[in-house]
Amino acid sequence: HTNCKIVLFIADDVYGAIDNVAWYRQCYLRKEFEKCIEYSDKLYAVSEEMCELYEQRFNKPVEVLYKGCDLSTEPKGFLNEPIKIVYAGNLYYGRDDTLAELAKALEKINSTKTVAKLEIYTGATITSEIERKLNIVGSSEIMGSRPYNEIKEIMKNADIVLHVESFEEKQKELVKYSFSTKIIDCLQSGNVVLGIGPSNIASIEYLKKIDGAFVIDDMDNIFDSISKILNEKNILNENAKKTRDFAKENHELTVVREKLKEDLTTMCKGKSNESVAN
């Protein structure tokens, strides 16, 4: 009625998830979702893979929109002794199992001398099983939850910041097209980013594009890969600088905001969705 412009952001594969809803609601939900897409003037999505999927489904242009980084604080520029590896995030979708494999690898590496320690900051409910898997004296410790500002400082003072995904087929399907905003928090820290998870899911594939980041995409290679990284720790500062440069070029907060403002201004001047996307 008002001719107001409508902008949608697709953060998860909501349309695909309708298949898992009770059959008597599926038709209604699809119809309502399709109506939203039809009326939209601009579509954003959380990852390139999600853009491609929704362009194919609805034959409308979809543009990727990533979270921006606050890069106003300079990186710490030194390494801790032992190396501090930090994971800050939830333990859902099988991520606890991936962290457990890393913790076991660190326990083996630290058998004669403590080379590195994993700190896990999470607000997730800690069961006795999770505690057993992730609390390994001298190698891995669950630190509980912290306010976001404190987490930023903790990640800044780390040496390696982690993003992990599950290798289980069921969990891979759930996160296949999603992009974790935790990756942007990792980039913001100014430290080396390590991704552990399977190929062909959006978050891990994006990490492979980041200059200076390490990616382990085979569960069987976790021990060998982390051993190699820790044996060549002199390259960590160099890789951290490469990643920082990538973050400045692609995710700096003012750049992301300016691009978004430009898109919305162009759209509101009456240009079509197609011309904006082009």
Descriptive overview:
The chain has helices at residues 14-17, 23-39, 48-58, 95-109, 128-134, 148-156, 169-175, 182-189, 202-207, 222-231, 236-250, 253-268, 273-277; strands spanning 7-10, 42-45, 63-64, 83-88, 116-121, 140-144, 160-164, 192-196, 214-216. The longest helix has 17 residues, at 23-39. It has a six-stranded parallel beta sheet, with helices on both faces. Strands 1-2-3 form a three-stranded parallel beta sheet. The chain is globular and about 70 Å long. It has 278 residues and is an alpha/beta fold. Helix 6 crosses helix 8 (182-189).
What keyword list fits this structure?
single chain; 278 residues; alpha/beta; 3-stranded parallel β-sheet; 9 strands; 47% helix; disordered C terminus
Shape: globular
Strand ordering within the main sheet? 6-5-4-7-8-9
Q: Helicity, in percent?
A: 40-55%
Got a strand count? 9
Q: How do the helices and strands line up, and which of them pair or pack?
A:
Blueprint: E1 7-10, H1 14-17, H2 23-39, E2 42-45, H3 48-58, E3 63-64, E4 83-88, H4 95-109, E5 116-121, H5 128-134, E6 140-144, H6 148-156, E7 160-164, H7 169-175, H8 182-189, E8 192-196, H9 202-207, E9 214-216, H10 222-231, H11 236-250, H12 253-268, H13 273-277
Helix pairs in contact: 4-10, 6-8
Offer a quick outline of the entry.
With 278 residues, this protein is of the alpha/beta class. The chain has helices spanning 14-17, 23-39, 48-58, 95-109, 128-134, 148-156, 169-175, 182-189, 202-207, 222-231, 236-250, 253-268, 273-277; strands at residues 7-10, 42-45, 63-64, 83-88, 116-121, 140-144, 160-164, 192-196, 214-216.
